[in-house]
Amino acid sequence: MKFTFKTVSAKPFSAPAKTSLLKMSLTVLLLVLVFNVNAIPVVYKKPGCANFESALRMITRNAEQGVVSSKFILGKIFLEGKCVRQNYVAAKKWLQEAATAGHVEAMYHLGLVFYDQNGPYKNYHDALHWFRKARDNGDEHSIYYLGEIYLYGRGVRRNWSEAQRLLALASSKNDPKALYRIGYIYDKGMRGQRNYRKAFAWYTKAALLGYRAAHYKLAQFYALGLGVRRDKVKAFTWYSIADMHGHTYSRSKKNALFRRLTAENIAEAQGLIQRYMKSISYPE
């Protein structure tokens, strides 16, 4: 029996069909790029990222070979997105593998993945689980987030006494986030009347540990005279320090206040900025 093949002339694609085919191809390409977490990403060319690509290749190779510490480092790199584009899919994959293998820091960072309110994996129940595991294995950074979870009732019933205990414990370990949050509680009167004097004291502690939101708060308190005598020079000082640390709204406030200062005021502020910058410490 003979088989004969008929030659069929192919009809050219219509314009809508071409458009549809192009969209489908782009979608497939995007999915490949997003979910291929083992692919080496483009390394940003910016200060601090020199020679990072070769290091990233080595870390990736070690992680793929099962080295738990490399899995953690790789997950943290993708989570922070400092020298590469932030990639939550890759971050979650590598941090989860490391955390499941018992890596304590990976447990904490995996908690951050689930706790991120703007992230794709937001899940307060899972965040609580991993923060607890990290805390129970000696990680001190998780204590603050557990306190914040109970303070706002995220994934659990709101529990003020437990929040207070955890935030006090975190603040005793000089966690600037905890120091700031306690100041915020007094500032907003979350447990009764506002107490600006106590808020100012806690904000100051956080500010001297390099917490930029606290720098901004101190500037506001000096500008408005909340819990402290109004002082435009010190307000300008702390707006400037907040701006130096990258706080979003500080620059416009600083510039507006600058126009109200004398040359003598500016000289005084420059001296204060130098003094405070020397006294600020940055905990790990």
Describe this structure in words.
- This protein is mostly helical.
- It has a domain at 203-284.
- The chain contains 14 helices and no strands.
- It has helices at residues 15-35, 52-64, 68-80, 88-100, 104-115, 124-136, 141-152, 160-172, 176-188, 196-207, 212-224, 232-244, 250-258, 263-279.
- The protein is globular and about 65 Å long.
Instruction: Please trace the helix and strand order, writing H or E for each element.
Output: HHHHHHHHHHHHHH
Strand content is: under 5%
Total count of helical runs of at least 4 residues: 14
The biggest beta sheet is recorded as: none
How helical, in percent, are the residues? 55-70%
Which residues sit in consecutive blocks of at least 5 with pLDDT less than 50? 1-13, 24-39
* Measured distance between first and last alpha carbons: 80 Å
Structural class: mainly alpha
Compute the average pLDDT.
Answer: 87
Oligomer: single chain
Shape: globular
Radius of gyration: 26 Å
Number of strands: 0
